[in-house]
Amino acid sequence: MASVATDLISRGLSDTSAPANRPLRVGFSELHGMAHELCQFPPEGVFCSEVVGRPVRLSPIRSGIKGYMRRCESAEHDVIEAVISPIVTRNNWVYSVECMQAAMSFSLLGCPLPRSVRAAWFRRLLLQPNLKKIVFWSQAGRRTLESYAGIRDERIVRKATVVYPAIRRVSDELIRFSDGDVQILFSGDFFRKGGVHVVEAFERAQEQYRGIRLRLCCDEKIDFSTRDAALRDEFLGRIRRNPGIVFGRVPRDEMIRQVLPATDIYALPTYVETFGFALLEAMAFGIPVISTNHFAIPEIVEHGECGFLIDTRRFDCERLFRGYRVDAIPRGFREYMTGEVYLRLCELIESVDLRRRLGTAGVQIARTKFSLDARNERMLGIYREAVGEAA
Predict the structure, then answer these.
(1) Neighbours of 322 (CB within 10 A)
(2) How many whole angstroms separate alpha carbon 147 and alpha carbon 13?
(3) pLDDT mean by block of 10 residues, the chain; 391 residues
(4) Fewer CB near the last or first residue (10 Å), C or N of the chain?
(5) Long-range CB contacts (< 8 A, 24+ apart) of 43-50?
(6) DSSP 169
(7) Is 31 in a helix, a strand, or coil?
(8) Which of 273, 289, 309 is nearest to 354 (CA)?
(9) How far apart are CA 292 and CA 309, in angstroms?
(10) Under 8 Å CB-to-CB from 255, ≥6 apart: which residues?
């Protein structure tokens, strides 16, 4: 294993700097999701584009993450920003990642490896001289360098920093606080993100508030993965029988232009989350949110200021819900979570003033702490440092 790591890593050593008379050229290893957004709004004096990578020949490394340890070489870029997946490169590069759990998600020819072995391999990767910075998306993510990977090497720790992802500013005309029938939104993986509790709490709230509506932006085939077929069938049946629930995924353009502007409450009482970009997106539209105090979410949502966070610390969610599929929901946990979601829904349904106060605060957080200007200022310094320029 060590010889494989050495072989892959030793191919990526170089040090170049950008001429001062042209824009700094940054290549992204992936242009999906957030990276695509950031590429459209780069820092001033920076040109961003995609670096087309290719698999490393005969590599024994396997991962479910797209493009994991793909070779990315480019004479057209001064620095490469690898997004989520680490890369093999001779360019100067910056590694942007949620947490070490995601970074170390690989096996050897499909065979699982102990965490200590994966951490030792990854430590060698992070010590590459041409890896200039490790950019975590949250303080919680940065802490996993030691808490999950056990890495305390000062040479690596000095490379680690936190730069929050950015959300595009939403036009004021798309932000509104309705005093009519309340529209509630849930999106994503139904079981991992707490959809069970949203549906149960909504059904209970319907007995008091007849005009409320729930939109579930989920796909039956993609977002209802569980080994508990009875649980899956139960909730698909309850959803289809309820005339107050609209069910099904929508294109992103429709989500931005129609669904989010019409939403009054966003509920995402998630069990497992590495950042929570969907919460940030809702806040940008002035939507108060209901979520959990898991991992980085408290860095996004200030409890009682822009939404409500359900305290899950009495439960070991990482042990209860390992991996990417929820196969069982303990009864005590289910009752507690549903009850908490119900109480917070009722508070928000009953008071448009509360929704306005929390939503307005959320907009302010999205426009400052998570603004493109704030991220670009930080990343410009990191890019310049990576190519040897003075910040």
Answers:
(1) 11
(2) 29
(3) 45 49 88 76 92 89 90 95 94 95 92 94 96 97 96 97 94 91 96 96 96 96 92 96 97 93 97 87 97 95 96 84 80 96 98 97 97 95 87 49
(4) C
(5) 43/376, 43/377, 43/379, 43/380, 43/383, 44/376, 44/380, 45/380, 46/380, 46/383, 47/23, 49/25, 49/76, 49/77
(6) P
(7) coil
(8) 289
(9) 5
(10) 187, 217
Query: What domains are there in the chain, each with its CATH number?
Result: 2-166+371-386 (3.40.50), 172-368 (3.40.50.2000)
Tokens 């997004």 -> residue: 83
The encoded tokens of residue 88 equal: 């093999």
| Structure confidence by residue, pLDDT tens digits, 87-140 | 999 999 999 999 999 899 999 998 999 999 999 999 999 999 999 999 999 999
Residue 76 DSSP symbol: S
Question: What's the length of the chain?
Answer: 391
CA-angle at 286, arms to 285 and 291, nearest 5°: 100
Strand 265-267 versus strand 289-292 pairing type:
parallel
Question: In the block, which residue shows the tokens 């309820």?
Answer: 242
